[in-house]
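Cross-check.
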Amino acid sequence: MHRISMFAAVVFFLIAGNAMAESINCRLGLNGRIGAIVPLEDSRIRGITFDTDPGFAGGGGLVYGLSDSLAVELDVIHAPSMDVEIGGTNVSEAEMTDISLGMLYRMTPGNKLVPYIGVGVDAIKGDISDSKLDWTVGGHVNGGVDYFLNRSIDLNADVRGIFAAKSDTEQNDVTVGKFDPMSFVATIGVRLFLPETL
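Predicted model, tokenized:
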């Protein structure tokens, strides 16, 4: 009977320790991620419709646990080079930067594998060669999963849809078209949580 009690106590402490190991409550994490961006809508310059091809995307940010189930995230995603095509011909290059502030709901806090969903607001800036694109505002919805290797290191996979009002495209301070930043972004990365509770 004594051995069974001891075994039960050890199992309990291992389970409790494992749950505490993945707690992010009142902890700050640093994000780094890479992946791809897929523009979902066509844009127009001087009445001509152009396509923006998928491209590389990367970025990082901060995440802070408000509780084990809720977290707030500040994120920056930058796509440095996407081909712009008209009628299948590459005519230029575009880039896009998305700065977002969002809220995450973590579905199974305390486990090593933690799926989540999120929503937030975004400020988006694009650029096309020889053109200037104004800032625009919008939002995003995202979902993903965190896998904790230990208390401090978490592997992350995230997918998100970004939507916003169309941005004016200007050449020589004259509006010549509209750029639609609606995109799908998929990334993988690492979160590094600081050891001390804030």
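The chain has one domain: 2-193. Residues 78 and 97 are 4 Å apart (CA to CA). Passed to J.P. for a second look.
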